[in-house]
Amino acid sequence: MAAPVDIPDIVIGRLPIYLRALSQLADEGHDITSSHELGQRLGISSAQIRKDLSHFGEFGKQGTGYQINHLLGQLKQILQVDHEWAVALVGAGDLGHAIARYGGFLERGFRIVAVFDSSPEKIGRELNGMQILPADDLSTVISEQQVKIGMVAVPARYAQEVTDELVKAGVRAILNYAPITLVVPKGVHVQYIDPVAHLQRMTYYID
Amino acid sequence: MAAPVDIPDIVIGRLPIYLRALSQLADEGHDITSSHELGQRLGISSAQIRKDLSHFGEFGKQGTGYQINHLLGQLKQILQVDHEWAVALVGAGDLGHAIARYGGFLERGFRIVAVFDSSPEKIGRELNGMQILPADDLSTVISEQQVKIGMVAVPARYAQEVTDELVKAGVRAILNYAPITLVVPKGVHVQYIDPVAHLQRMTYYID
DNA sequence: TAGATTGTTAATCGATTAACAATC
DNA sequence: TAGATTGTTAATCGATTAACAATC
Questions:
Q1: What are the two backbone dihedrals, phi and then psi, of residue B193, each rounded to the nearest 5 degrees?
Q2: pTM of the entire structure?
Q3: Number of neighbouring beta carbons within 10 Å of residue A111
Q4: Considering only CB atoms, which chain A residues are within 8 Å of B179?
Q5: Residue among B75, B97, B82, B88 at smallest CA distance from B12
């Protein structure tokens, strides 16, 4: 059995960017693109794009480039986004509401199947076609439905606690909107959405 | 005149993370920390933290570590977030509403001072204490108020167009919520908020 | 065919880490 | 003082780029 070649995480991180750019090209009516064209759009060298893709196979044709639809399909398969994922959302405040209502998740393959909150006045209300469930049911619902992805949209001080419960219930990937660093066991992945951190990174450069 | 030493962007990108972790430590009542403690929390080596900080000066004391409040202050100065920034928001749909209402921006030094939309039925309505302004006024308002930061929360197909206007009006940093890559002239910075891309990056790793 | 572009190798570049003298 | 931790140097590691044979 061949050892699974492990691909640098930084490469994996660029695949969704390629996916996004390819979708855009497809939307614009293109059928074929090249590493050069793609690189131009993304501000990435063509060599890097070819190198990145070469980790997974050969997807292009010399002299021609890449069939956009084919490459899209291959990338989706690699990232395992060739099927829909069920997602649990914790937190039904302003942010949770916005997330639940945002159509872009479903559009791109992530279906929010449950929303939890701990506030008695929110529990039972409807949000985007779902009933807001009590946080106490989190573990049961997630285990039963075998949900593997969670989104944390609770105030910072509850985020670690919520994370621990998600992990215990079997969640393997967490998208964290709270501005704190979460501690998770190995094998569980966390990504952070912190718009303010992005702004702070840019203000450094403003005269 | 010494040439301004230019610091790797990847280092700049970590400073907001340090800022966030230090704030958290301060909130928890700590006065002092070390590169080791900070690194543990963030999953970063202590050597890297010391190296990163060394680009900007000496902020610690051998044998003791870092005075949290002092380091916080220094980092804020370096990132230029030791004063409030005015921000313009374009797009008053669901996402724009959520952004406008989210308290975390102001809390951390970014004040949304104007919201624009092109839909006649939204223009004039109130949103978080502001009147929604017509997109046609974007250029004037931003130039006059010398706003340097913009947030783009419009559908993907309008995002580039809006960006061009923002840039023309003098905006130097753009936080883009639309899932497309934007083209901007040198000297203008863009950061992307694309939660789906983060999810796609994690699904790769799920058995 | 001639031109274009891939996939891949080797060279370069840059970032991270280990180690330690300095010193609080 | 003894222990701890900084700031920095040099070594290591890994990622990016340049270049080109293969080939459509």
A1: -115, 105
A2: 0.95
A3: 11
A4: 20, 104, 108
A5: B75
Confidence of residue A94 (pLDDT cuts 50, 70, 90): confident
- Using the structure block, give the residue that is written with the tokens 């969640």: A171
Question: What percent of chain A clears pLDDT 90, i.e. is strictly above it?
Answer: 96
Question: Which positions in strand D are less than 7 Å from the protein's CB atoms?
Answer: 2-9, 14-19, 21-24
Q: Which residue of B has its CA nearest to A24?
A: B180
Give the pLDDT confidence of B104-140 residue by residue, as tens digits.
Answer: 999 999 999 999 999 999 999 999 999 999 999 999 9
Distance CA(B173)–CA(B190), nearest Å, equals 6
User: Cα–Cα distance between A100 and A86 in angstroms, integer?
Assistant: 13
**Residue A151: helix, strand or coil by DSSP?**
strand
Cβ A192 vs Cβ A200: under 8 Å? no
Give one DSSP letter per residue of B35-56, joined into a string.
Answer: HHHHHHHHT--HHHHHHHHHTT
Find, in chain A, the residue whose alpha carbon is nearest to that of B175: A199
Q: How far apart are CA B29 and CA B50, in angstroms?
A: 23
Q: Which helix (H) or strand (E) holds A54?
A: helix A46-54
Q: Give the position of tokens 């998740």.
A: A105
Tokens 């890297």, residue located? B48
pLDDT in tens, A35-58: 999 999 999 999 999 999 999 999
Between CA B138 and CA B19 the distance in angstroms is: 32
3-class SS of residue B65: strand
Residues across chain B: 207
- A44 CA to centre of own chain: 21
Length A152 CA → C11 C1' (Å): 45
- Lookup result for tokens 């997807």: A59
Checking each nucleotide's C1' against the CA of A62, the nearest proves to be C6
pLDDT digits over B52-78, tens only?
Answer: 999 999 999 999 999 999 999 999 999
Q: Residue A134 pairs with which residues in a beta bridge?
A: A117
